[in-house]
Amino acid sequence: MKIQITAELLDGLVLAILKQDDYYGYALTQKVKNVIDVSESTMYPVLRRLKKNGDLTTYDKPFQGRNRRYYHITEIGEQRLQEILRIWEGYKQNLDQIFYQKGGEK
Questions:
Q1: What gap in Å lies between CA 5 and CA 84, rounded to an integer?
Q2: pLDDT value for 86
Q3: What gap in Å lies between CA 29 and CA 55, rounded to an integer?
Q4: Which of the four CATH numbers 1.20.1090.10, 3.40.50.300, 1.10.10.10, 1.10.260.40 does domain 7-97 have?
């Protein structure tokens, strides 16, 4: 069974990873894949949307005769990440109360 992940949560994962360091698309996809099952065809539209919203910027860097496009979190993206984390913490606490209640009310 797989638990479906929302677009907002996927955005938060990407922003959290990019807060640690800049990544090019494939490497970023691999980092996200370590946590959830996601394909490159899912990730690139997410990256385009985050860039369009001002959460990310990009820059190109040569690698073995080709350019890699790197993604960098912006100040707007960092603010958005903080908002997603705030919402996630409240959501997680509510779920934990149900999942881990001991001898609760019926």
A1: 13
A2: 95
A3: 17
A4: 1.10.10.10
- Token digits for 60? 């190109």
**Tokens 């994962």 belong to residue:** 13
5, exposed or middle or buried, with CB in 10 Å at 0-12, 13-18, 19+?
middle
pTM (two decimals) = 0.86
Domain positions in the chain: 7-97
Query: Which sign does the torsion angle of CA 88, 90, 94, 99 carry?
Result: positive
Predicted confidence pLDDT, tens digits, the chain (106 residues): 577 888 999 999 999 999 999 999 999 999 999 999 888 888 999 999 999 999 999 999 999 999 999 999 999 999 999 999 999 999 999 999 999 987 655 5
- The residue among 63, 69, 81 whose CA lies nearest residue 18 is 81
Q: Which amino acid is at 14?
A: V
On whether the CB atoms of residues 62 and 24 are closer than 8 A, the answer is no
